[in-house]
Design goal:
The protein is mostly helical. It contains 13 helices and no strands.
Length: about 220
Amino acid sequence: LGRALLAEGEYRAALDEIEAAQTREGDPEAELWLGQALEYNARAVDARAHYKKALELEPGNLEAAALLGRLYAYEGAARQALELLEPVVQKTDAYPYAYLAIGIAHRDLNKRDQAVGEFQRARELDPTLFEAYYEEGRILNDRNKHSGAAAALQAGLDNAKDYAPQPRQVEDAWRRLGDSYYELGRRPEAKTAFEEYLKIAAPNAAGRAEVQRLMRNL
């Protein structure tokens, strides 16, 4: 029932049901589901312990390793993340988010080329992973590789129409997309991207003044 409620987006009710299913001895699947329910309820720190418990009960549980490794990556514990995630992707492509998390870990270790490769693999496996497009485009934009940046960011934003990625990433993606199109001399596309950015950026957003300056040249 808890798993079904998770699938339906009833995260609070799912958490209640899965917590009620816990046993004193522990069950790896129930621990895994509880960790997921906690993440969906914005309790990632609490989820970590249950992913660890799932791995203790079943050391070969690849999904638990992938989920725990992802948490480590987002917490900035890059090396711990890689220790868990690299063995997972050597065995299966079932968890595209594992490649995304590996990319984030490599990014934090300043291994930018490796990070880009992981982000590309993540989005090949799951085209809905907006963050993979965004992270790839952000790195390429920062490195003045504007053709690649524009391709990644545009594809990510096109795919984002069907779901709800993080608003700040969408905002930054439009700004960076406009910047890359501007540097490529593609003025109409730059104008469109900047206009989309200005629609959603806060009045005091750090990049707004620069975007408005560039818009005067379009």
